[in-house]
Amino acid sequence: MPDELHETRLDDDLTLLTETLEQVLKSSGDPADQKYIELKAKAEQALHDVKSRVSQASDTYYYRAKQAVYRADDYVHEKPWHGIGVGATAGLVIGLLLSRR
């Protein structure tokens, strides 16, 4: 559920960024135009916020993946025969699936 929340927030952020950038592109582009200046500042802030959230999300996913690898490594070291059995079973299943193609 928390991953779905992060994905939803990221989708919302990307939508906001896209809409803001479209407004900037549709505006007159005149540097003296106050609306253009405000939209440009809004787009820059939105871009900064999205980059920050994406960076944090990727850091979180990297940390989770690293923890999963460590747990799997610990499990295999504690119970090597279980690890061999799981690996052999996975290999057998993948082999059967590929042979049906």
From TrEMBL:
Keyword annotations from UniProtKB, A to Z: Cell inner membrane, Cell membrane, Membrane, Transmembrane, Transmembrane helix
GO cellular component: plasma membrane
Any Pfam family: DUF883
Residue intervals of the DUF883 domain: 10-59, 72-101
Annotated membrane topology: Single-pass membrane protein
Positions of transmembrane segments: 80-98
GO molecular function, one term: ribosome binding
PANTHER family: INNER MEMBRANE PROTEIN-RELATED (PTHR35893), PROTEIN ELAB (PTHR35893:SF1)
Entry similarity comment: Belongs to the ElaB/YgaM/YqjD family.
Name assigned to this protein: Stress response protein ElaB
